[in-house]
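Trying the structure run again after the queue cleared.
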Amino acid sequence: MNNCSIQSADSAVPAPLVRNRYVWIALVLWLGLAVPLFIGMPLNSDTALYDVQTRSVLNGGVAYRDIIEPNLPGVLWMHMAVRSLAGWSSEAIRVVDLLLFAAILCLWLRISVHRIQLSPLFLLTATFFYLTRNEWCHTQRDIWTLLPVGVAVILRLRRPAGPQILSALLEGFCWGCAFWIKPHVAIPAAVVMLIDAGGRPFRVTTAQFAAVAVGGVLAAIPGVAWLMTTGAWDHFWKMMLEWNPEYLAAARERMSFERWVMMIRRFAPWLWIHAVAVPIAFVSVLNHLRVGSTHSTRRHTLLSGCYVGWLVQSITLQHALDYVHVPAVILGLALVSSHPWQLSIPARRTIVAGFVICSCLWTPFFQGQRLQQWPMVLVRGSTVSVRAALAHGNLPDWYHLGRVVDFLTQQEVADHDVTCMNVHSVHVYNETQTLPSTRYWSVSILQDLFPERSVTIADAVMASQHRYVITESRETELTQQVPGQSIIDRLTPVFESGSYRVLAVGSNEDQLAAIPQDTQN
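Done. Tokens:
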């Protein structure tokens, strides 16, 4: 009698759920381990810079005028929303990033996986990939762009053969929102629309293109209005037209074969997914162009087009920077997961398990010192010692940077009191809740990216009313130069910790006496 009851209960559960329960269990256990460590990781310097811009604007400053910025303001708006609602802690924006990533996975799962038995494998591999990446891959505009793009693709999938103008307008609005975050999204958008136009009547295609374009224009209107009403309009265009050509030229010169090699090594083995996903994508697109597609295969075709477009723009138009290539891997995983493989579930599990084990051996995420921080994050949050242990990179040195912050806090620094010479010192502004001495938030990188304006940058910093200048020797050695040497001439070292030095303007004996004894030379 009991055996019959057990068999009856088992038969009531869908077979795919029974087969995949161990994958779901593994996913839950993995999230329980990884999420606290993810939240405790430090922020990257890009995120810190956008926070500096956000603080400036929320305090009444003008974007592009008060803090130099070569990109479109979409990510600034997102930071303004996050910081206004969730606060200024690193944990807050990391929680938001995690929630956005979960929403992104749900959207692309809806687009790619139409069979329930495939979903846990995609979720497991995608979350394993993202949560084990270094801090430069998180809270970045590239991954956030996948959210409005996913909505745009879903709107296109749900639209029947007719033009459906309202749906097309909404789709275009989503593409426009994504463009404000990062304009490179225009490439995958164009590929998706061109592929989907194959086999459709010219009249319908033209009407849809026009409606999508109008939707994109509608998305531009609020942004333009914000730039104009806040006084940023003229400064925005001056940056785009006069500064950015030099910025783009300098960025191209910084590219090298060595940078690509280092990035590929850090991403191993996840970039291998492209070796499988690219052939799948091309076959799917070619089949669609030759014979058309049903609704079930159309989702695979649009996913393929978006993936190919994204991969092409990230390789050809952008840099060998880790965060740039995260979305293409996510889309590649979605594409491979949705492919109708003629493989049994056990065979798939074996392949995925081998891939994950290989990644475990490669990523520093599972090093003992990092895993030991799990209870510390739960009890204390993302402290300086936790960030130092969980950081994947060598810059900044969170322990010594924390000591610099403590010193500056003791000196009661205020807005415009501090100048940072090096990129990764930008965290000082957020840790002390202050703004840079000038719009040039980091002297060295801006002199490197805008060499023709190097003297202008140095003159502006020297004419400022700053009290302290922060240098970091290791980062300066990497650039094989001492940028802005004239800025630090005749300044007095008043604090030193590790590779960091704090130089004072108009130093006096009282300042020198304030230096802790173990840090004086």
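Residues 2-235+262-267+281-338+347-362 form one domain. Worth checking whether this holds up in the mutant runs.
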